[in-house]
Amino acid sequence: MSATISSDPPLALVVAMGRNRVIGGKGALPWRLSSDLKRFKAITMGKPLLMGRKTFASIGRPLPGRETVVLTRDRGFSHPGVYVAYDLAGALALARARALAMGASEIIVAGGGDLYAQTIGLAGRLDVTLVDLAPAGDAFFPEIDPLLWEETDREDHPAGPGDDAPFSVRAYRRRTDPAPR
């Protein structure tokens, strides 16, 4: 069964990745980026977060002010305050129902690499923090095809207190007419 989601509310992928597309290693972020964590909180507050079980395990708890939908193949997985789905279609339907119940403007996909790969074709927006590092890792964000995605905004940020590196925040929207090849 293929996963589909209506455009209301839309799906947005929010990610921090290194220059080499690494998003994690051994179940953890490969950097400290306090400035971006504050930004993540601000843009996800009041919205459902859809994430894989490993990403949830790295966080360890539902994030306040958001509802968490965890996608897992582990039928025995449960956690207080978390909604659980066992396939992508079910996870998307559950996240959509939670978004509508919350009055949220969008659904946020918050990782990991496998879930990003499964949902990038369904998303209308990407919110990418590009960290000026190229760390080793075992989880990656998919390629952002410029024929399908248009960069609409970019802000460069120097490393602030609690940040391991400078970073830029890039907003992308899906092209309505893919660019010619």
Shape category: globular
Write the H/E string, N to C. Answer: EEHEHEEHEHEEEE
Fraction of residues in H or I helices: 10-25%
How many distinct domains? 1
Return Rg in Å: 16 Å
**Tally of contiguous helical segments:** 4
Classify the fold: give the CATH topology. Answer: Dihydrofolate Reductase, subunit A
Q: Which class do the helix and strand fractions yield?
A: alpha/beta
Separation of the first and last Cα atoms: 30 Å
Count the strands? 10
Mean pLDDT: 94
Low-confidence segments, given as residue ranges, are 1-6
| Major sheet size, sense and barrel closure | 8 strands, mixed
**How much strand?**
25-35%
Would you give an account of this structure?
- This protein is an alpha/beta fold and 181 residues long.
- It has a single domain, classed as Dihydrofolate Reductase, subunit A (3-Layer(aba) Sandwich), CATH 3.40.430.10.
- It has four helices and ten strands.
- It has helices at 34-44, 53-59, 88-102, 113-119; strands at residues 11-18, 22-24, 48-52, 67-71, 82-85, 107-109, 125-131, 139-140, 149-157, 167-174.
- The chain has an eight-stranded mixed sheet, sandwiched between helices.
- Strand 3 (48-52), helix 2 (53-59) and strand 4 (67-71) form a beta-alpha-beta unit.
- The two termini are 30 Å apart.
- Residues 1-6 have low confidence and may be disordered.
